[in-house]
Amino acid sequence: MLDLNCKDSVILNQWHPLSSLEEINKGVVHKTRLLDASISYGIDDEGTLSTWLSNDHLKAGQPYNAAAITDPLPVKHAHGYLWTCLGEPPETLFSFSEFYESDRRNVPTGVFGVHVSAGRAVENFLDMGHFPFVHTGILGEEPHTEVKEYDVEVSETRDEVVATQCQFYQPQAALASKEGAMVDYIYRVPHVNCALLYKSSPTDESRNDVIYLFLQPMGQEQIRAHTGMCVVDDMNSHEDIRYFQQTIFGQDKPILENQYPKRLPLDPRAETPIRADKTAIAFRRWLSRKGLTYGVIPVEA
Amino acid sequence: MKLYDYELSGNCYKIRLFLSILNKSFETQTVDFYPGQEHKSPPMLALNPLGQLPIIEDEGKVLRDAQAILTYLAAKYDETGEWYPLQDPDRLGEVAQWLAFADGITGTASAARLHDGLFYDLDVEAARAGAHRLFRILDEHLWFAEQAGQSWICSGNHPTIADIACFPYVILSEEGGISRQDYPAIRRWCDRVKRIKGFIGMSGVFPTSAAA
């Protein structure tokens, strides 16, 4: 067992994202924070990845040498990201098959520090009700504020929250959109800190664009939010796609940082939900059943 | 006119905001500031060796530095002559003084925001303390201005480019962990800026209601 401040085995026994693989400079030690611990990582020219609890021998910015790492942590290279685990690593990480389709554009759109718990950030990602007010003219606009009835289930076989049949009117659903349209959404929460959103692609209606949010809890009330898109779009540049998504995320940021309390309350009586919050309610119950305590306000026994 | 632009930059927002107020059309070229660091690339360094945004190109002229660009735009395109009062040495001096102050806000409040949001490696406690020192000075100044029946940073009845230069990193300060709770005069002034005709927001800056 590692000596850590975080004692919650539910969160310790998860894979956590640290960085988009594209953004790791080779041959240099990088440093970040995960579950209140300092974590270092590096990749060499051969593609050998390591993560370890930070120490004074290998400081950030110094040359990275995989052979010098005496106490490596588990690593996983999946969905374009480097993942690590500070407890017992699960055998598998959730599926994300679209990421591996050959004609997809996978664009990491940036990692942002946000003063909020991971649970609050996931919930905001799942919420359609805020589109007309926060992403005005892009993901929603008045008077099209109605969140239509949709379905939510917790898939027992895959252990994930899934919301389907979601529909919302969007003036500019994606960069490739030419006009406003009713857009179909599917949400997946296949990991306590990761959510994916599938929406009909403006360039090919038979397929879905995927937008993902992989959260790295630095502390209970501070996260690194890894955002990215996996799209069918042969017209726009990486930079344009990234810029579109950063604009959206920049609009969400002050909303997230003004949530109170910053930790997610799991008691159903703590906050008053409306019908549109069905996914959030299922998400909170799912977290409660797992017994998560880190970054949340658990239901009092 | 072309603006080399990045949506999440408060300094680029100063220029977009002022051009909107002036109702002057322009094109933008998006620079992949984060994570691409395109502003440090050779073609961008050729335009601005300091490796910073914003930069404008206007009728063959290339200009860098948000405060310098605001000065240029006001002197050239503001037909009212109010935003940069060239004919009034007293007020012109005040504008220059507060433009320099805006640079101080960038060096502190903006730095803290870059640290918290984009993981810049810097002394964030020093940056926050510096921002609070400047906010206290600005809050007191605005409070006395209000007592004298004035609404804006510089004297007179019309806002100046000093208001535009100081506004963005004040209104974005919470992203760097700098609360404006203790600065009521600053909060009232922010609402007044948001009610200037032609005001636009950016990601993280929302409009306000009409004045009561």
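The two ends of chain B are 37 Å apart (CA to CA).
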